[in-house]
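Record 1 of the preview.
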Amino acid sequence: MGKYIYKKKLAHLLLFLLVIAFVFFLQYSPVRASNASYRVDDQAGLLGENQRIILAGELDRISERYGTDIVILTLGEEISILNATDYADTYFENQNLGLGPSQSGMLFMISMAERDWAIATHGEAIDVFNDYAQEQLIAAILPALRDNNMYAAFSELASFSEETLDNAERGIFAEEKVSRPFSFYILPPAIALLLTALIMKGLKAPLTSVGFRSGANSYLLDNSMQIANSNDYFLSSSIARTVIPKSSETKSGGGRSTTHTSSSGRTFGGSSGKF
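->
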């Protein structure tokens, strides 16, 4: 009987240990690890728990794949900032953000106090997320930000960042698009056509007294040329071949990146505005 009680207590102890191990596993499983990611610092509480976990996991994947930190920071209404750009730069430095030798990274920050947004880029990300790329990013996410749909805005930011990094890896960088009025495409051909008509008219004017002749008999003197016999002989033929090289188009980092120096002396790119 005593041996039976001992085995029963041992079984209960083992079951208790299994429960403890299971709870420990849940606390430190990969899903929980993504919850602790530093790449989504939602101090303003704008995202739900599941939204934050999913978004952090996506930013972790993109950042590690391309070797560039992509980080989102939100500040609540209780935090008042004087300069959004300075705050973003300081946060980047204090949190030691950036990957690789150049500490490449892009931080997107919003402040709900004055509805400010700011972008801070560092290292290789300065050229990847150049001025034009930042303009395209803000144009893509600004409608959602203004509607307070933060999860949609940040999800679009993640997709845009991945596409931009992938393009940069293939040597394609954002470039300025210059919009031109419709007259820009119509006026040059119209002017060229008008000038051509005036020139042709000027060349034709001195020839109005010349009559049309269907043959060349009027230009020959009598008995000035006699052809006794004429023959055509085929001698040889030749074909020349020239190799035409295939055309290739490569776009490289021609986009402009405006930079500034932080209070600690480090070089940052970026921009800021209101939403």
